[in-house]
Amino acid sequence: MRRAHIGIVIGLTVAALALAGCGGGDEEATATETTTTVATTVPTGSVLKGSVGPGFDISLATEDGQAVETLPAGTYTLEVDDQSDIHNFHLTGTGVDVKTDVGATGVESFEITVEAGTYEFVCDPHSGSMNGSFEVTG
Ligand SMILES: [Cu+2]
């Protein structure tokens, strides 16, 4: 188990380096199998997966499970899986203000068009601890 865990950590490090555009000099790390599934860019028009609950967790990821940190400007389908009736998922930023209902659960889809800047997602009742953000590049 410990070995597998270290492999994942290396994989994530490689992904971070690849996203930063400076993957050179890490020949050993890039030889791991995990690199084949790493998405270095999020395609415009792809599906973004928002998730909140059942615990005090909120997240935004690509369809293959990579946390969304930067996105190219464009239109995306946001699919939110609201798994709790005490939380919601609320995304805001330039031109975007979409949210699920706190008391409701289930999957809800939104078409969003993002432009350069910072976008934030929160659970409204617990925004101090349940929040995240990503940057949209122009
Ligand atoms: Cu909450």
Structure commentary:
By secondary structure, the protein is an alpha+beta fold. The protein contains two helices and nine strands. It has a five-stranded mixed β-sheet with strand order 3-9-8-5-6, with no helix packed on it. A hairpin with an 8-residue loop joins strand 8 and strand 9. The chain is globular. The N and C termini lie far apart (41 Å). The N terminus is likely disordered. Copper (II) ion binds next to loops.
Quickly give the structural class. alpha+beta
What ranges have pLDDT less than 50 throughout 5 or more consecutive residues? Answer: 1-27, 34-39
Q: Describe the global form.
A: globular
As a percent range, the share of helical residues equals 10-25%
Helix-strand pattern: HHEEEEEEEEE
Number of strands: 9
Number of helices: 2
Major sheet, described briefly?
A: 5 strands, mixed
Rg measurement, Å: 16 Å
* β-sheet strand percentage: 35-45%
Hetero ligands: copper (II) ion
CA distance, first residue to last residue: 41 Å
Multimerization status? single chain
Report the mean per-residue pLDDT as an integer.
Answer: 82
Which strand order spans the largest sheet, edge to edge or round the barrel?
3-9-8-5-6
